[in-house]
Design the sequence.
């Protein structure tokens, strides 16, 4: 089981928002320390920059440094990171406007040291071919939820290209989402 503190410091509802990047990083350090103090192989802290557009450069930089620090026992591997990427085109455009010095949405995470073997990227509906190469090179994985309101990712191509992929489906109580057979057919033909 993973435990995280979401790390937004802008463009987020107040109930999620940390006042400053310093507060957000302190909350993450506290959570990491607490989870590690339990000394359990079943619990693991995870860094969660909610998505790039909800984080300032200072916060992403701090999270990248935190991820690079020597891991604490009982978990010898680098801290896992989970975040959103390329769920919809409006998100991509806003991210590009907030991070003009970075080549792409995926490059934002990579440039701040947040794209690596323990990174899980949610959605990825609109990843470019260049971004997919970057994700694969970093060894990151993509978890795509087949909620077709945001778009359907090229999961079949990702698998063919050797990208780590996990798929999830909307809950059965979500009456606005298509049925699982429709989603599986979309995935198969994508």
Sequence:
């Amino acid at each position: 089981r993973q435990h995280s503190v979401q790390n937004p410091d802008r463009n987020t509802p107040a109930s999620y928002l940390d006042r400053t990047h310093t507060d957000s990083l302190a909350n993450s350090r506290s959570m990491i320390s607490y989870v590690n103090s339990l000394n359990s192989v079943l619990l693991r802290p995870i860094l969660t920059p909610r998505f790039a557009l909800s984080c300032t450069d200072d916060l992403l930089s701090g999270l990248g440094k935190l991820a690079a620090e020597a891991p604490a026992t009982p978990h010898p591997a680098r801290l896992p990171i989970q975040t959103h990427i390329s769920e919809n085109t409006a998100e991509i455009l806003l991210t590009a406007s907030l991070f003009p010095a970075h080549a792409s949405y995926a490059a934002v995470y990579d440039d701040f040291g947040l794209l690596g073997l323990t990174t899980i990227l949610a959605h990825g509906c609109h990843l470019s071919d260049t971004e997919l190469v970057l994700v694969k090179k970093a060894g990151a994985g993509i978890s795509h939820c087949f909620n077709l309101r945001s778009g359907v990712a090229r999961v079949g191509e990702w698998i063919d290209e050797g990208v780590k992929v996990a798929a999830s489906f909307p809950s059965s109580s979500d009456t606005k989402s298509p049925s699982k057979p429709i989603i599986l057919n979309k995935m198969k033909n994508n």
About this structure: The longest strand covers residues 2-6. The mean pLDDT is 84. The radius of gyration is 17 Å.
